[in-house]
Amino acid sequence: MANPRQKRKLRSGHYRKQSRQQARTYRKKQRQKGEIVNEAIAKVWNKHKSTKHNLAAIGLVNDPNTELNARKRPETKISPDELNMDLVKKLEEQAAAYEPYQAYCSRGEVVFIQNCLQKHGTNFQAMSLDLDLNKQQHTPAQLRRKVLKYAQTLDMIGTVEKIEGEVQQRLESDPEWRKKQAERRERAEQRKKNKQAMKLKKAAAAAAKSEFLP
């Protein structure tokens, strides 16, 4: 049964059905909206092909859900010749050099946490009950995370100010804080290794070019 509202719209005389040309123009504009941010993919992207065909040519999956559920199909190996291995290597290097985003405290949050620590130390329960300072009514667990975030901010910007006394002891005994410190050190070491590897690759490429030059 048709919708009465749609019937009234058709009888009103103001409704005009979209023509094929209008629909074709709309679809064309929708396809032209997207921009590829990744330079490596933008170089090999063919605008005249669909997204599915472009991703298949690169070696990526358009819909991971369909691929994960397709276990009944016979397994076939993709030969390296069918893929753009130079692009695959560039994407792997970019993925290895990826650094996860870390949120830090704003100036207002820094002032708020400093006032709470000066008045209550690390007694998060007392912080949550102090409505003069805790106007947003944060819970003790939320205040604890804010203190960890505050300490991480001070450690990252390299400020001279140190967290001393009870606060420093509490942070050092906190397993989450120790885990974040270890992850930060691992990321710093990985960045150094990646930079050294890139320098060696550039030096090897320059040496190879110099051998073939007259």
TrEMBL record:
Segments for region (Disordered): 1-34, 168-214
Keyword terms of this UniProt record: Nucleus
Compartment(s) where it occurs, according to its Swiss-Prot or TrEMBL record: Nucleus, Nucleolus
Basic residues biased stretches: 1-31, 192-202
Biased composition (Low complexity): 203-214
Record flagged with keyword Heme: no
PANTHER family per record: HSPC111 PROTEIN-RELATED (PTHR13243), NUCLEOLAR PROTEIN 16 (PTHR13243:SF1)
Protein name as annotated: Nucleolar protein 16
Organism of provenance: Salpingoeca rosetta (strain ATCC 50818 / BSB-021)
Organism placement in taxonomy: Eukaryota, Choanoflagellata, Craspedida, Salpingoecidae, Salpingoeca
